[in-house]
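Usage

Read records sequentially. Each one opens with the input sequence:
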Amino acid sequence: MQALPEPTLPSLEGGVWGIVVAGVGGTGVITIGQLLGVAAHLEGRGIVTQDAGGLAQKGGATWSHVLIAASQADIRTTRVSTAEADLVIGCDPIVTVAKETMLRMRAGRTHVAINAQGVPTAEFVKNGNWQNPSQDCVSTIAEAVGAAGLGAFRADLAATELLGDSIYTNPMMLGYAWQKGWIPLSQASLLRAIELNAVAVDNNKAAFEWGRRAAHDGPAFERLLNPGQVLAFVKREPLDELISRRVLFLTDYQNAAYAQRYQAVLDRVRRVDQASGEPRLALTEAVARYLFKLMAYKDEYEVARLHTDAAFHAQIGAMFEGDFKLHYHLAPPLLAKKNDKGELQKRAFGPGMLIAFRLLARLKGLRGGLFDLFGRTEERRQERALIEDYRASLDELLAGLSLDAPELRAERYRLALEVARIPEQIKGFGHVKARNLKAARLAWDGALLRFRNLQAQQKAA
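and closes with the structure output:
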């Protein structure tokens, strides 16, 4: 690769350079602080490092405070003080916008090198609608220090793509900050510190170099990560194709008669939708998506069918080489133990589970019938009841949309769409699904009640 120009490094004459490394515990945040400390020691600089962590040593917010000076006598504190950070290395964007980090920043003084792609928090597990706030975090930092003081790139993605593991995100951030001219230490001393650390030396050096290249030419670095990437507008899937794919899926899922039940409901909804004068047939599309979601619930037979699918095994074979074995982590309602909260606990099953899967896949015709032992559990009965409840709600909505003049139907149509999309909120399996269903039921009942009240008001008027 072409050699990069070396940056102009900050001067330490008459002052202390304060660095805060912010990230997630267990990813090497403390290691970056130690690398900076060793490199400073190798150069004969004054150095103090102090590490701070949240409640979790691994997975929690973690900070490493690094103070570097021309001599040890110049350093009179053990951590970076309020508004006195010269550099923040933000290995995780969420931790970088935490109060502990933001207090150290000051516009005009602080530079921030931030990984623009953060890892999901525990909220992702609890909230099925959680959205990664990484971009908002970057915007918050830009407001705090100014655009000139901010450098951001997708280090997590780059480390995974270029080095095969996101664990190299932090040394990549170190190289990025150094190339920006925000670290008052030589490249030679930093690389020597990596060598002395004696852990994955070659890969950590490579990560440092990739970080430099990201800082030197961001657009070229992005093109390297996404070769041949072009801006493309994906054509929206036509409604008929969307429905046809789901009909075929439900035929494989159960049988043709089961798929026909789905198709019949869609035909009814489309007729009312067309009569309502809605050009996009938004209600038909919503029902096509979410009636399917309810009808294709993943019970034991469906899990078995998907795990024995030839396409699935071809995909697995393409991901791994050599002799490998599949193990399955499952919580069958009839077999799994429960914790003290009454929640089913997963257990590991060996490769022999594939034999049971093949047998179960052939027995899908028992689903919902007299001999369906799995279908007798509370969760399975609830899933079948949801389908019928959804269809009953659709009957009421369609009847209400068929009445009165078009100008009176607009608000009712909006509420009908809200009800039709409720199944989007019913995510997960087992106790997670039960928790989400409880919240969805409240939204479902509320939207239906508003629909009924509006219909009554319009009739009375």
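Summary fields computed downstream for this record:
- Residues 239-460 form one domain.
- Residues 66 and 372 are 64 Å apart (CA to CA).
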